[in-house]
Amino acid sequence: MLIAEHPWPAHTTRTVPWRSSVRLPLPDRRTTSISTSIPPFIAAATWIPDRDTEALLDRAARALTDLDTHHGADLVALGGALDRTEAVASSRIEQEPASLDDVARAVVGVRANTSAAAVVRAGDAIQRLVSSAGSGTITPTAVLDAHRALMRDDPVDGRYAGRYRDVQNWVGGGATPRLARHVPPPPELVPALMDDLFAFLHRDDLHPLAQAAIGHAQFESIHPFTDGNGRIGRALVGAVLRRRGLTRVLTLPIATALVAEQDRYFWHLERYRDGRVDGWVRDLAIAVGTVCDEATLTALLLAEASDGLDPTVRSVIGGDPVLTEERLADGLRAVGLHDDAAVDTVAEDLCRRGVLRAVTERRRNRAWVVVEMVDELAAFGDRVRAAVLQRANRVGW
After folding, report:
1. Per residue in 178-196, pLDDT tens?
2. Domains of the chain: residue spans and CATH
3. Which of 51, 125, 157, 166 has the fewest other C-beta atoms within 10 Å?
4. What pTM value is reported for the model?
5. DSSP H helical ranges for 139-228
6. DSSP run (H or E) holding 357
């Protein structure tokens, strides 16, 4: 059944001069102008869902609130396990795959997987932005600070960390925008468009999930940074949900669902530029509901696994799936074991018992992962992906 789209202002275009600063093939050298996509100002734009969509949004919102209320404190006590899962999934959308083992190595400075370092930075950026929204506002400063945390160590775009772009960018198409999938607005329009977006994000007359979906799509259209737009834009979804009170402590790993059907996700962002938002709003609501269902199961399984540990062991390893040598030493001191040799003894014992798995080979500044935690977080991602793909097959995406 076809569902009528509710009107939303479409993007316009503007042709601007273009000249590459590097030597390129002849067709690119002959390109002297490009067509940029100009997002509308949306601070006062109206979007009203139909009855079925509104019911869907309400169900997803209740699922999120229930998860946050009943399991949020437990999941947050797991040392940001879901935050790490969100960062891994969000970075995977940007073609920077890394496992939690890779992330654990990156936490202690092992550089074998450069993508893992990006995941660690992404987790920090996500948490910064979402936490700041708990004050009731989403500020330009908070977004720029999150971007700085994400990009400051990037070898290419680190110099642009924490500031809007002053150059033209594009999505896809290679070294020039000639064949790009999306050419965002010229840089001089970015500050005004971002001010308008912040005004939109502070409205209270839209359903929070619809506001998060539309705000994210608008952010991606503006593409205000030279790099890191996708990860900051997806963190913005969590920030809206925090500001509107749907969460108090949790950052829902929504990217886990988006990465399962990322072609459809990108398709929605393209349709948004044509003024079509309904499908994207509905899909985000369904993704939220799916992730909440599986996160509830994860919370219960992780709690069961934790209860099965000796209380002293549970206290020593803490709740983060990534255990560093420093954290292990701190945990041992907390239970009265001050001997440095205890770190080796306890780590070897827990590895032998299958509680920990070593992910580094060096003798100092080591890292382990808590086996049952990382296995369940991997299973969580698999369950979300299976649920998304099952629905895709059922409705014929």
Report:
1. 889 999 999 999 999 999 9
2. 12-21+28-38+47-300 (1.10.3290.10)
3. 51
4. 0.89
5. 140-151, 190-201, 208-222
6. strand 356-358
